[in-house]
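Inverse folding, one chain.
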């Protein structure tokens, strides 16, 4: 059973409340963050199509927010660089 299947079973059984999934730019990996109490999250690294998971430990809600902002920033930078590259290639064709 792959990690995505395990995650789907968990969500089916317990619901999606308290779980956030972050993609990691330039990889096929996900960070699965599950809220375990009011100010604490457990973080797991996994490849959705793989079978191995890595427990990365716990963080506070503030640390989780900072992590989310950094991953969002990285994703935006990646998309902007792809757009810039496409524009440069288009200039070379025209």
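Residues assigned per position:
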């Amino acid at each position: 059973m792959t990690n995505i299947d395990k995650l789907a079973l968990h969500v089916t059984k317990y619901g999606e409340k308290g779980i956030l999934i972050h993609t990691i730019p330039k990889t096929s990996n996900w960070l699965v963050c599950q809220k375990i109490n009011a100010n604490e999250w457990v973080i797991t690294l996994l490849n959705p199509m793989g079978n191995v998971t890595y427990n990365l430990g716990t963080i506070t809600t503030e640390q989780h927010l900072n992590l989310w902002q950094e991953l969002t920033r990285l994703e935006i930078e990646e998309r902007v660089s792809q757009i810039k590259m496409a524009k440069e290639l288009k200039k070379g064709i025209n």
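The chain has a mean pLDDT of 91. Helices lie at 3-14, 61-93.
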